[in-house]
């Protein structure tokens, strides 16, 4: 036991913090805030439980940081789409495809948001940098829609925030309800072919909705 303790004490502080964040993301996604346990997070990370309190203070602060980190991650990836330098329709296609693919690859993101919505976003509201994090995306999307309208590609009067919510919602509903939808309709919506079909449908539906 002592040897293990010494090994943990020599662990790089930055590394242990990152390990705990990754473990907490998985644990909160799996069990929700109420069901997640600090002991299990530390066990998943392979570090001493006391490091959770050392790095983050308490479970709630760790949870808020996980929420901030998942939103930061998706916003950073959206920035790399470089929408401003693409043809408007190509830019929207890329954003729609990315949004769907991100949810397909990050089911823990879906689970975290679902749990937080069950609690009316109470802890997410306490994340300090949340709104500034999202503003640039809506601004760029608005500029892209305006370019498309000027070029006759998109209809006028489109609200970029409503467009983004529609893009996100069409994918989020599918992955958040994938098991119940499979049971209701007797189809395996988890299969790659079903996911690909849904992706194509979402892209086609959204682009048609934007056109004049």
Automatic annotation (TrEMBL):
Annotated GO MF terms: DNA binding
InterPro entries named in the record: Homeodomain-like_sf, HTH-type_TetR-like_transc_reg, HTH_TetR, NicS_C, Tet_transcr_reg_TetR-rel_C_sf
Residue stretches making up the HTH tetR-type domain: 14-74
A Pfam family of this chain: TetR_C_29
Top-rank taxon, per record: Bacteria
DNA-binding region range list: 37-56
Coiled coil region boundaries: none
Record's keyword terms, sorted: DNA-binding, Transcription, Transcription regulation
Protein name as annotated: TetR family transcriptional regulator
Organism field: Oceanibaculum pacificum
